[in-house]
Write a structure and sequence with these properties.
Elements: H1 5-15, H2 27-38, E1 49-57, E2 60-68, E3 75-81, H3 95-105, E4 108-112, H4 124-139, E5 145-155, H5 157-171, E6 179-183, H6 194-198, H7 207-217, E7 240-245, H8 251-263, E8 268-273, H9 288-306
Parallel strand pairs: 3-4, 3-5, 5-6, 6-7, 7-8
Antiparallel strand pairs: 1-2, 2-4
Helix pairs in contact: 3-9, 4-5
Length: 307
Amino acid sequence: MPLDPQAQTLLDQLALMPQVPMSEQTPEAFRASFAMLAALSGEPDAVANVEDRTIPGPAGEIPVRIYTPEGSGPFPVLVFFHGGGFVIGNLDTHDGACRELCNGANAVVVAVDYRLAPEHPYPAAPDDCFAALQWVHANAASINGDPNRLAVAGDSAGGNLAAVISLMARDGGGPPLRAQILVYPATDLTMGHPSIDENGEGYLLTKESMEWFMGHYQPDVADPKASPLAATDLAGLPPALVITGEFDPLRDEGEAYAERLRAAGVPVVLSRYDGMIHGFFGLRAIFDASTKAMDEATRTLRDAFAS
């Protein structure tokens, strides 16, 4: 299909802005630019309660934001990992998406502000995220959550982390997960899939920027803790919803991971959003497809938590 007109409009608007070569970008400047884009998500939903706090991590306190829906609970709990190439993004950039997930899934959402590269390169991010999941499981009652109804979700680098943490939970004795929601996940940090070249220029996320992210993150790309597609065995993982975009450089590796999961006997729904670019999830003020994808994610979570 052709590029979605709403995606084209956004790309045309961004093209009018001053362009700074990636080689000249600093993490601080890129973080500020990303925050401006995230601000386009529109007016955030109201939720019953939002709390910022810290929890213990492997190298100090980890900031988290806890969203609680209306009702008496205990609620199922979704642990959410934001995207941003392991270098950018924070609790504020994904606040709108977390609010939608909280209300739509009728679940407590714990958003994790894991350590970022280059200040904290690989494996700081997955270590923090797994510690956060373990904390949620052990302390669910304190946040009006049900420790027996847990799921993980994330977009882009956060999708990578949700997949990695699902593997770590399986191999580390838990906690058991009801679902993993992987939104255009980076599953193979070798950057060897055709869509990276096919869609690597002109569709928001570029091959050049991905190389910049990897240069800061410094992953061991052969390690499943960095590239979940490198895992030799995907059996026994939680059911997955994998969302991809037709014009996303990460399309092929997300879809390859879905097929590997299916071949391993894991229940999988793979949803490619035709005409879409990277980053559309959570930007409902711009993309009609964002609302559709959010509805699909929250419906998946409600079904998983009810089973």
